[in-house]
Amino acid sequence: MTNLKVAVIQMKSGSEKDKNLKEAAKLINQAIKKKAKFIALPEVFNYRGNLIEAVKFAESIPGQSTNLISALAKKHKVWILIGSILERTRSTKHEARSIKNDLKPFNTSVLINPEGEIVAKYRKIHLFDIKLKGKEILESSRNQAGKNPKLVEVGFKPNSIKIGLSICYDLRFPELYRAYSKSGAKIICVPSSFTKPTGEAHWHTLIKARAIENLCYVVAPNQAGIGSGGVRTYGHSLIVDPWGKVLAEASADKEEVIFAEIELDYLEKIRKNLPALEHRKL
Q1: E strand or H helix at 74, and its extent?
Q2: Contact present, 11 and 20 (Cβ < 8 Å)
Q3: Assuming Cys at both sites, which of 22, 94, 209, 220 could form a disulfide with 238, CB separation 3.0 to 4.6 Å?
Q4: Per DSSP, what are the bridge partners of residue 256?
Q5: What is the pLDDT of residues 104-146, one digit of tens each?
Q6: 3-state secondary structure (DSSP) of residue 272
């Protein structure tokens, strides 16, 4: 089987949307120069700021951000996962003052194929509502929750591979990933804006656990720097193999691109030698 070269992009997205888009394009081009065929961006890659103000920057899909990434995917014949953007759910312009439930945007991952086509959307199911060292983050005050997992088949010559989509806080809910592995996923994507306090405690452990228990590769682009509400994010974007080995890891605080090879023969060998997925009872 042919290997798949994956690139994970770590960003320090801020509140200047055009600047974020320009930086994302630059980092995608770096990944393309290194011959990556699947490129993953982090959560809220195009805008990260005040939770309520962020609603004003929500987009329809397709829209400004997806159009830019689609053009790059088509030009260079690569798969690109937009880690997430805020997806506008109605044509009515969102207002910062008070957000009714049916007007709240979704936090949505978008997968784009080498023809520049949107082939999958995943709306974040588990929303992050928490207090951290005196700072309150209430994602449910800004976003609607998605309801449906999304497993998508990605084709690359001469193979295809199933990929399970998720976003950040989903990482803490293992039943989502078990559903993906039961349905044939071999890669799990976890684009994130994982905070520093929770990241220091749990990021590596949870990413490795999802890889090991599902015998999947995990591709996890994270944000670095200061995020929404002044909360610092953890960085340390990861690519982890099905044995729990870290194949590539980004720094704590830099924008950068990391790379690894997805080796399907190796994955199948691990699943054959340790057939835990076949031993499930529940």
Answers
A1: helix 64-76
A2: yes
A3: 220
A4: 10
A5: 999 999 999 999 999 999 999 999 887 766 677 788 888 999 9
A6: helix
Measured CA to CA, the distance from residue 11 to residue 158 in angstroms comes to: 32
Integer Cα distance of 192 and 189 in angstroms: 9
Residue numbers of the domain that contains 76: 4-279
Whether residue 139 lies in the annotated active site: no
**Mean of pLDDT values over 98-106:** 70
Q: How many distinct structural domains can be found in the chain?
A: 1
Residue 2: phi, psi to the nearest 5? -80, 140
Residues 6+ apart with CB under 8 A from 147: 123, 125
Give the Cα separation of 129 and 149 in Å (integer). 20
CATH number at residue 174: 3.60.110.10
- The order of strands in the sheet holding 4-10 is 118-123, 106-112, 79-87, 38-40, 4-10, 256-262
| Residue tagged active-site, from 17, 23, 43, 186 | 43
Q: Is the pLDDT of residue 198 over 50?
A: yes
Catalytic residue among 121, 124, 150, 186: 124
Catalytic residue status for 124 = yes
Instruction: Mark whether 213 is an active-site residue.
Output: no
